[in-house]
Design a protein that fits this description.
Strand content: 5-15%
Structural class: alpha+beta
Shape: flat
Distance between the termini: 20 Å
Order of helices and strands: EHEHHHH
Number of strands: 2
Radius of gyration: 19 Å
């Protein structure tokens, strides 16, 4: 169930066994682990269900140190978080992504693509 807290009466108390702060990719994945396990789960997101200029403006700020993309352009503040930049799609890795590349120092992974299959099945039911 999705509830926009802006529609609740002031001082409404939300009770949960687990509160997860942040409705981005990680927060949603964590919430999914607990849903259906008999616990009341609250996923708290500072944005709404859709993009909103006023909420997004909370990211306006100055970047110091290494030059970077503006904070408010590189992050999104609504359900799904910054994964909304790429529609939440995570392409499964290919074998080539894990193999060493002679021209890239320290490249390659100590795992095979096939060893990831159980995790992909779980993440992409």
């Amino acid at each position: 169930m999705l509830i926009d807290s802006r529609s609740l009466p002031e001082a409404t108390r939300i009770e949960a066994d687990i509160a997860i702060v942040g409705g981005g990719a990680a927060g949603i994945a964590i919430a999914r682990e607990f849903i259906g396990g008999g616990l009341r789960v609250a996923l708290l997101e500072s944005g709404g269900l859709d993009y909103d200029d006023d909420t997004q403006d909370l990211y306006v700020g100055e970047v110091t140190g290494n030059p970077s993309i503006a904070l408010d352009a590189s992050r999104l503040r609504y359900l799904g978080g910054t994964s909304n930049h790429w529609a939440g799609y995570c392409r499964p890795l290919d074998e080539a992504d894990l193999n060493p590349r002679p021209w890239v120092p320290h490249s390659g992974w100590p795992i095979t693509r096939v060893s990831l299959d159980p995790y992909y099945r779980r993440a992409h039911p």
